[in-house]
């Protein structure tokens, strides 16, 4: 095989490699032997070694074909079988108002400063199972009363949810004191009484199956990343940290849930905040115009407003 490397420092085999036919059985044996000598290296490694002595037309295709037949390489490069995932529960795909079905998790402790020094505080994270909307509350202590107060603020702002998911109580029974305290909250009598009165169904994920609560565990990571990048090592007061959490909540609720197109003519991405505008309220709504205008209005005013209401209906 000719070339323009006559005056180079290469060896004679490199200057004039032996040409091998690509469909010959001898070529396959040579490629297989070089592949084994290179400790079952990849395509590029084996091909580079072969070309130091031989030249095979379309050599990369031949090397790829031989390596695919290698039993040892197939054994160690084989992919494990994937476990078939079950169907999503109805609570996560039903068309319901925001936070009708939610998940709750704790994050922390986070230290805050006060006049006495530093104190621990905890983040209570509520995630909508259908819209992935987020609601954050800052609890001063890890007690049942503190959690119930945070939950009352949550349902007052977002609407009374009916289904709540959380980690299994047994999952919290570890050596960590904070995790043990969470388990005590979930087993407290006041906790069960409150949710029974509110007609809220509490569902626990399976033990040692954290991926069952992935829809709220993922947002715990997002919240921690925001706090770590924004705060760094800063030590804030309870009020300052509560304000930062509210801003983090607003940012994460504005994240896109669908693909962001480059073309302006394409539809805008969906965001969790778009669904929150349609959240329901549990307060009593006026069903008669008299409740709106109040009892102190005159008879003439009532008649005029009634006629105006009938005109709008028509």
Automatic annotation (TrEMBL):
Q: Where is the Integrase catalytic domain?
A: 93-280
Alphabetically, the GO molecular function entries are: nucleic acid binding
PANTHER family membership = PHD-TYPE DOMAIN-CONTAINING PROTEIN
Organism the protein comes from: Araneus ventricosus
Lineage, broadest ranks: Eukaryota, Metazoa, Ecdysozoa, Arthropoda, Chelicerata
* BP GO annotations: DNA integration
Q: Name one Pfam family in it.
A: Integrase_H2C2
Protein name, per record: Integrase catalytic domain-containing protein
């Amino acid at each position: 095989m000719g070339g323009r490397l006559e005056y180079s420092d290469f060896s004679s085999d490199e200057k004039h490699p032996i040409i091998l036919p690509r469909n010959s059985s001898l070529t396959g044996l040579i490629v297989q032997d070089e592949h084994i000598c290179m400790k079952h290296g990849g395509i590029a490694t084996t091909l580079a070694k072969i070309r130091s002595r031989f030249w095979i037309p379309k050599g990369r295709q031949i090397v790829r074909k031989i390596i695919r037949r290698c039993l040892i390489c197939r054994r160690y490069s084989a992919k494990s079988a994937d476990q078939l995932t079950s169907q999503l529960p109805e609570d996560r795909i039903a068309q319901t108002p925001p936070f009708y079905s939610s998940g709750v998790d704790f994050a922390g402790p986070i230290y805050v400063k006060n006049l006495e020094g530093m104190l621990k505080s905890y983040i209570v994270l509520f995630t909508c199972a259908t819209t992935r909307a987020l609601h954050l509350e800052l609890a001063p202590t890890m007690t049942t009363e503190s959690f119930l107060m945070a939950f009352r603020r949550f349902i007052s702002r977002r609407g009374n949810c009916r289904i709540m998911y959380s980690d299994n109580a047994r999952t919290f029974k570890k050596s960590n004191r904070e995790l043990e305290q969470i388990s005590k909250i979930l087993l407290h009598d006041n906790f069960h009484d409150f949710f029974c009165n509110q007609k809220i169904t509490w569902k626990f994920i399976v033990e040692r199956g954290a991926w069952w609560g992935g829809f709220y565990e993922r947002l715990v990571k997002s919240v921690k990343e925001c706090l770590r990048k924004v705060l760094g090592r800063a030590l804030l007061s309870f009020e300052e940290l509560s304000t930062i959490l509210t801003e983090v909540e607003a940012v994460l609720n504005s994240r896109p849930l669908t693909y962001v197109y480059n073309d302006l003519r394409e539809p805008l991405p969906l965001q969790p905040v778009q669904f929150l505008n349609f959240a329901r309220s549990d307060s009593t709504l006026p069903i008669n115009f008299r409740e709106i205008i109040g009892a102190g209005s005159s008879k003439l005013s009532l008649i005029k407003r009634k006629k105006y209401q009938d005109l709008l209906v028509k």
